[in-house]
Amino acid sequence: MKEEKVFKDPVHKYIYVQDKTIWDLINTREFQRLRRVRQLGTSYLTFHGAEHSRFSHSLGVYEITRKIISQFERNHYEGWPQEERLLCLCAALLHDLGHGPFSHSIESAFGTRHEDWSCKIVLGDTEVNRVLSQVSPDFPKKVAGVICKSYHEEIVVSLVSSQLDADRMDYLLRDAYFTGVNYGTFDLERILRVIRPYKGHIVVKESGMHAVEDYLMSRYQMYWQVYFHPVTRSAEILLHKIFARAKHLYEDNYNFSFMVDPILHLIQNKLSLEDYLLLDESVMQTMLTFWCSENDSILVDLCRRFLDRKLYKYSTFEESSNKRVIQRMEQAMREAGFDPIYYMEIDFPSDLSYDVYRPGESDEKLPILLLDHREHLTEITHKSEIVRSISGIHMGAHHIYYPEELRERLSTTAYADLWALLGEQD
Amino acid sequence: MKEEKVFKDPVHKYIYVQDKTIWDLINTREFQRLRRVRQLGTSYLTFHGAEHSRFSHSLGVYEITRKIISQFERNHYEGWPQEERLLCLCAALLHDLGHGPFSHSIESAFGTRHEDWSCKIVLGDTEVNRVLSQVSPDFPKKVAGVICKSYHEEIVVSLVSSQLDADRMDYLLRDAYFTGVNYGTFDLERILRVIRPYKGHIVVKESGMHAVEDYLMSRYQMYWQVYFHPVTRSAEILLHKIFARAKHLYEDNYNFSFMVDPILHLIQNKLSLEDYLLLDESVMQTMLTFWCSENDSILVDLCRRFLDRKLYKYSTFEESSNKRVIQRMEQAMREAGFDPIYYMEIDFPSDLSYDVYRPGESDEKLPILLLDHREHLTEITHKSEIVRSISGIHMGAHHIYYPEELRERLSTTAYADLWALLGEQD
Amino acid sequence: MKEEKVFKDPVHKYIYVQDKTIWDLINTREFQRLRRVRQLGTSYLTFHGAEHSRFSHSLGVYEITRKIISQFERNHYEGWPQEERLLCLCAALLHDLGHGPFSHSIESAFGTRHEDWSCKIVLGDTEVNRVLSQVSPDFPKKVAGVICKSYHEEIVVSLVSSQLDADRMDYLLRDAYFTGVNYGTFDLERILRVIRPYKGHIVVKESGMHAVEDYLMSRYQMYWQVYFHPVTRSAEILLHKIFARAKHLYEDNYNFSFMVDPILHLIQNKLSLEDYLLLDESVMQTMLTFWCSENDSILVDLCRRFLDRKLYKYSTFEESSNKRVIQRMEQAMREAGFDPIYYMEIDFPSDLSYDVYRPGESDEKLPILLLDHREHLTEITHKSEIVRSISGIHMGAHHIYYPEELRERLSTTAYADLWALLGEQD
Amino acid sequence: MKEEKVFKDPVHKYIYVQDKTIWDLINTREFQRLRRVRQLGTSYLTFHGAEHSRFSHSLGVYEITRKIISQFERNHYEGWPQEERLLCLCAALLHDLGHGPFSHSIESAFGTRHEDWSCKIVLGDTEVNRVLSQVSPDFPKKVAGVICKSYHEEIVVSLVSSQLDADRMDYLLRDAYFTGVNYGTFDLERILRVIRPYKGHIVVKESGMHAVEDYLMSRYQMYWQVYFHPVTRSAEILLHKIFARAKHLYEDNYNFSFMVDPILHLIQNKLSLEDYLLLDESVMQTMLTFWCSENDSILVDLCRRFLDRKLYKYSTFEESSNKRVIQRMEQAMREAGFDPIYYMEIDFPSDLSYDVYRPGESDEKLPILLLDHREHLTEITHKSEIVRSISGIHMGAHHIYYPEELRERLSTTAYADLWALLGEQD
Questions:
Q1: What is the rounded CA–CA span in Å between residue A399 and residue D176?
Q2: Per-residue pLDDT tens over the stretch A178-237
Q3: Which residues of C touch D36 (CB under 8 A)?
Q4: Alpha helices of A75-198 — where are they, by DSSP H?
Q5: Min Cα–Cα distance to chain D from A250, Å
Q6: A208: closest CA among A62, A388, A355, A368?
């Protein structure tokens, strides 16, 4: 490119684009679609500022990756494979390309996986694929490889996807900025200064351990205060229930007065790539709006609740009373005229899709390694008590979700035993 | 209320709700709808962070009003009519209730006015109306009066709508925060300390003049850098063209494969209140998505451009060459196969709906008055050279908007005279 | 006071003074003296921004206390003794009044205690005493009682001095701001919202536990990254050595060419209140400047090192090699011509005067209590794994400090065993 | 250097040192001395946060210069003389080296100039000179040339000293940060992106004009709100009076009980370089402290006022009543027992040493030039109405300073005419 281009960004001040390939990717139809998918799904119903899109996050992940590589190059670190620069940048930019609207709810309702869709878009008949192919015919495959973590150079994969990757660093800073909480504000510059490539890994200079502790503590706080927030979870549950009801109605041959192809194909489990690219949060929201006029009272009620933010209330309870709570709650539901299938949910925060730092567990991302001045590598929990303590913490309480009106509809005394088992809701 | 409630807000840290009426208003269907209307319309296509909603802005206006009143009460200022507190707070919260999706484009295409819709919602058969009526039967009318600036107490109106009102103070801070520019960051606390009620006006202590200068300079910068940004304007123009095309097709009895009632009624100019409340940015966006599959090539092309952010390019030109530029551009358009009605627009930024500070002009909001230690009131331009200079500045250049491909489609030499008349685009 | 007064403050934006007593206290000679004592002693040699004074911190502690009380009053909490308001505010403002220059070094060298001096100033023949006496004759005694933690109302003491007091909340935020690190930035507003008076204690609503965790994690990071920083410690050691040398010279009847009474009396251990009030960091710094021209080469060298920031280098070593390291280092010192009394120091960070959260240890401040919805109180480590983990962490490594030139002055091989025992310095 | 070094800085996050020469310069005695001279002189008596030193500002100027050069090199701009890089960095770092304590007061009292002292230090027998000489024998002279603006390459001079130089950019941001006002916060990154070398000048791309406007407006606000603040000025006047009194006493052969050589030589107007380097704010402050015990009641009173912040009050008056105000005030002074020589001062803010942007005036720094897309250069006031308006504004009101007690000491009616001529003090 003749000249650097910039995007104004509230988190990184500016995002610098120096390669024509990156510029062209940003201008593809598939990448622009990310403007219509919120980064935090239903969190905007808990934190009204959380209305930022996956588009801005994707630019941020790209920018952090660019900064890391630029620091590696400036310091002439040996372990850095310079020829992988553009591949890293493209994978960083595109790693979330396959995210659909309200991913958590849809993925759990229909079993789709956004990583698979990312690869399909990169490899399919798309503008993104055409831009990548101009670099070299096998370039789209390489990018897909990095996104799916099958690429042979671990160091490339770990920049985009590890316990200390550009993806997480951007989302912690960005989500903190837009929600307005200040837990996510670790010192990015300091992290950048203490990481380096070493024998195929990204490692952390031991003297930078406290910077990483700070980052992991930010993460811990963000999970509890933002990502696992029960109000957000309540909205996700409602969306899940709406899809479950729609699927049931479809199977019952109900005739929807509002229906568009991509949603129909989603329910039928036969989404094409073209369908998928039409699915954004606007379409979902519009569907909810017009399903408020359908003829099924349950579907109408659920959609109405979501739109008007009349979310389910939640209460905690002890694991030991699990069975009793469920049984009595189902009785209460039926007595009050609610179908428990659609009006009740039991939940553990640790079932959610965000992960905390638990090295050693299967399916875990690449761990964080410290490099000491004798060139030994040690996994961080062996050196940091604070990280060890965070890693070990068992996540969350049992929550039960149910309509706020439930209790009023029942006689005061009949379910006293149930309410006694439930803790306070804040 | 038993206990203060709070909302986490990135701009004001927390928003404090102390009255049940305010709490209930926030939970109405009509107020929740503001979550689905962006504060800055198409600006997110220029500044990707600008995805915040009118919901968050409305809470912010409420919060600033609450702080102002709390300061008036704490200082026991004589001129403050204490009985108007709740009225002020409700009007502050609800003043933007009637905003529809992409207001600027829709209002210019169909002649609707959001202030009118705000009053219709407050006075109509709505949840908002029911909450307000619980205060007193004539309370909805009073709130509508403040919003429409017809209420008899000027001081109440001017808190919500004047040159130094809670509305502007919030939007400058909020829009600066979400776009990431730092022009809008004046010292809110200082402004709050220097304003006070005085004989029916909100006035500024003369020693606080510099604080107001700073606020007006922020505003000046925000108008130029954000609100009047030609890329944002280009997207607005495109939306306007899409509506113009749809209206034309409707009048030609074109049969839309995707159509919903609220949009049909908008085109037919017979929107009901119920329709209007269904119109949000999701519905608009969904319409654009599915109109990409219509049978009219112009409509398809315009929608495609908007969704993929292939906006019209813009160039400046001198007022003196106005006629010549238009004439030659129309010729060029036709030669290249573009219908100038849909593919070309001339624009002056000062036509836009944001106003700068120009006391004395008709339709101007209440001016800013300084109160000196001898209790004289003076309009600020008489004391501040810097404000005088900002007020007098003539706004903007002539811009012409047209498709980027236009130039490539024409022979290099044929329109050399036209391109010579046009200045650089940044 | 006719009208609220404000101070512009970078941490709290504004500090509001509403009582004439507070205003008068700020304007006393003894309080103004705090402008000449840095909040963080020698830390400015590590973090060049850390040049802020105890004056600004004292205003900050006052402001946080004012906000807490205002919240208690606004919510009409039962457990709050309203008549203690002014006492709390005065004690908050004055609690650090007795701090002298470079407190840590001077207190360790001469055995003075700033708390004692605070009380002496409050009770002595001072402007502060005269202002306080105007409230009531026994008011100075009450204020001294709160500062020395002997006042009978625990709740008053704990606002100013406990594990979650206004003092710490201000210094974490302020020290983070001025050093530029961003570890100290917890959510003050949120903490304020979750604390309340309860049966004579300040307690935390259980649902606010995460806010307290965040505050304690900030504190943990600040201790490691700022307060325990070995470079700061190295400068403190140097000051301590300078005083030790001066005392030795004095006892040897050395005739100082630069000497002023307060320093002489400090060395003689017979400081009067009047002397103490003349002792500020300017006097200390001036003493160092002119002692560079004394006739004792050790004193000159030590002062020169401090002024030119040629601080001692530090290395870590294992506890097990403690004895060996000391023995060999002393040999090395002598061989290189350094007197180990002045040129060597062994140090454990946990000896320093900042404390972490360790409930149960003697001399511990009032612990943090959580109040659940059944009105039970629980000490926070019983509920929070993260706090438990922070509390248990054993503090720091062994450090040895010595002149950087030492190693060059010795033959390369002679002390290879010593250098092998010492870890890396960053 | 083997590895980049960093300083933590609150304004720029980190300051990066990449050259051994820079590292060595920072570690010289003369540069470390800047830690003991406040950046804003007496401003800390107005804004208690303004306790930052010239040391931190000098690092900041260096860092901005480093960023500008790095951007020039990254973009391979033709007009940039690459061989001047180290010279620019050294001059940027050292340009304030000659600043003494409370420069404004001392320079006006004794006619010294900090620029001259900077050059003397660079060229004299100093550690700084020795470090610079290692680059090349004539390097110290070159550095001094840039600092004194006599160096032949205008572009090098203008990076360090022009209307848009690294010096001002750092001090606006830094002074805003430490005082806590938010006027100084322009968009540094954006300015860096729009400046470039062009035919021996640093120029601004025309499309960046608004960024420069924003910077100049920040400057305008900072001058009025911070640099010209009358309370700061009042403290400067007091210091000036103290020196005037001391000089008078010296000429009268008064025998000072506290005196050190550098101050004596300052009064005698025969300061050596060695003396000058001992003069820092600690020495000055210590002098004030001990002069409170001298035998001259005027000197004691003036020093006491400064230390206890009992500054002179100020009032505005109209230019037309100039003569009358002075005459009557002198009468009032004498009647109340104040010597007007030491207890009264007339002042115009525009006499102060900060300059605003006034191109064309003699002694003006290099102006700001805009470069348009046709490669024409235009001075910014010809294009920007807002800059034109700021440049033309006549600075400030007449102020008279006098002891607060003056009025109380006089009969209520005797000077009613004088008080009527004076405006309000805030």
A1: 48
A2: 999 977 788 999 999 999 999 988 999 988 898 898 898 888 889 888 998 999 999 999
A3: 285
A4: 85-94, 103-110, 114-123, 127-135, 139-147, 154-160, 166-179, 188-194
A5: 55
A6: A368
- How wide is the angle at C-alpha B324 spanned by C-alphas B318 and B328, nearest 5°? 120
Out of A284-293, B43-52, C150-159, pick the least confident.
C150-159
pLDDT in tens, B173-212: 999 999 999 777 889 999 999 999 998 889 999 888 988 9
**C385:A373 CB<8 A:** no
Contact between residue A399 and residue A316 where contact means Cβ atoms under 8 Å apart: yes
Is the CA virtual torsion B197, B201, B204, B206 positive or negative? negative
Task: Summarize chain B as % helix, strand, coil (round to 5).
Answer: 55, 10, 35
In whole angstroms, give the CA distance from residue D264 to residue D256: 10
The domains located in chain B, with CATH, are 5-228 (1.10.3210.10), 231-351+396-421 (1.20.1250.30)
Query: Which residue matches tokens 């979330």?
Result: A96
Q: Which of B193, B356, B357, B386 to mutate to test the interface with D (most CBs of D within 10 A)?
A: B386
C326 burial via Cβ count (<10 Å: 0-12, 13-18, 19+): middle
Average pLDDT for chain D: 91
Q: What share of chain D is helix, strand, coil (3-state, %, to 5)?
A: 55, 10, 35
Q: Which two tokens stand for residue B256?
A: 């839309």
Supply the ipTM of this predicted assembly: 0.94
- pLDDT value of residue D350: 59
Contacts of B75 in chain C (CB under 8 A): 3-4
Give Cα A40 to chain centroid, integer Å.
Answer: 7
The phi and psi torsions of A71 (rounded to 5 degrees) equal -70, -40
Neighbouring residues of A158: CB distance < 8 A, sequence distance ≥ 6: A165, A201, A202, A366
**Entry pTM:** 0.92
Contacts of B85 (CB under 8 A, 6+ apart): B69, B73
The counts of H helices and E strands in chain B are 22, 9
Residue type, D147: I
Q: Do B224 and D210 touch (CB under 8 A)?
A: yes
Opening angle at CA A184, ends A178 and A186, nearest 5: 130
- SS3 category, C203: strand
Chain A residue with CA closest to B292: the answer is A278
* pLDDT, tens only, B303-335: 999 999 999 999 989 888 889 999 999 999 999
